Hints:
Blueprint: H1 6-52, E1 63-67, H2 72-83, E2 87-92, H3 95-107, E3 111-116, H4 122-136, E4 141-144, H5 159-187, E5 191-195, H6 208-231, E6 238-244, E7 255-256, H7 260-263, H8 268-280, E8 285-288, H9 291-301, H10 304-314, E9 317-318
Parallel strand pairs: 1-2, 1-4, 2-3, 4-5, 5-6, 6-8
Antiparallel strand pairs: 7-9
Helix pairs in contact: 2-3, 2-8, 4-5, 5-6
Amino acid sequence: xxxxxxxxxxxxxxxxxxxxxxxxxxxxxxxxxxxxxxxxxxxxxxxxxxxxxxxxxxxxxxxxxxxxxxxxxxxxxxxxxxxxxxxxxxxxxxxxxxxxxxxxxxxxxxxxxxxxxxxxxxxxxxxxxxxxxxxxxxxxxxxxxxxxxxxxxxxxxxxxxxxxxxxxxxxxxxxxxxxxxxxxxxxxxxxxxxxxxxxxxxxxxxxxxxxxxxxxxxxxxxxxxxxxxxxxxxxxxxxxxxxxxxxxxxxxxxxxxxxxxxxxxxxxxxxxxxxxxxxxxxxxxxxxxxxxxxxxxxxxxxxxxxxxxxxxxxxxxxxxxx
Length: 322
């Protein structure tokens, strides 16, 4: 009687082991997929519920730092956050305008403090951030609002204009975030709000560098949120990116629209109210008005030439300010 060799037995044993491992891997993969599908639909349902029944966070007693509070949206944000009971830290390069904002807040019994700061200068931001933290403690909400918007064709933009736009509209966000994020990480709480623009959703003629800065804000805010979640799945630091349509603050000097009743300038007070609601309901992205974000999503599903026909029909945008 011929006995099987040891090598044959070893091979059979190896095949059995491999087979059991394969089955185990398949079962594990099936369970992972089932769990993914379950969590996916839970997330969808939660998002739908939160859309129609949003949970608003109370900002009373919280400290809110806003850049660009000397006028426009920044000023309205400061006034409205104060009306909700928050303590305001107001930053602006325009000392007179900033002091006026604080004066108005105090006249209504609010608590606010003015600091002069050129957010284009990283060293100034770092020094002032340390001063603010020593004087006021933890900053709960930071709103990167300051921005500039020269408006003319790309070849008419000077090097100084383009560099200034990126310094104020983009790099300042980085420096402010780097100044206040470490404290938020220690406490695992806090909220950053960044003002992008509808020019961060759509490419707009006469605003090529400006669009570049606002698309940049959209990108780094999303990337930063994902980075913190990767490091800490229980991350509780929130990020909200806002995309305002043309707001009547003086930045948009020559708006153009074929249907004024449909596409008119947004009032700064209305824009501020919408931004605060987005922050208090922890939206990651919100446009002002809200419909523009959905228009952008639908537009990306359509051929670009088809969207250009719609753009041409509506004929809205900004003319050169030169």
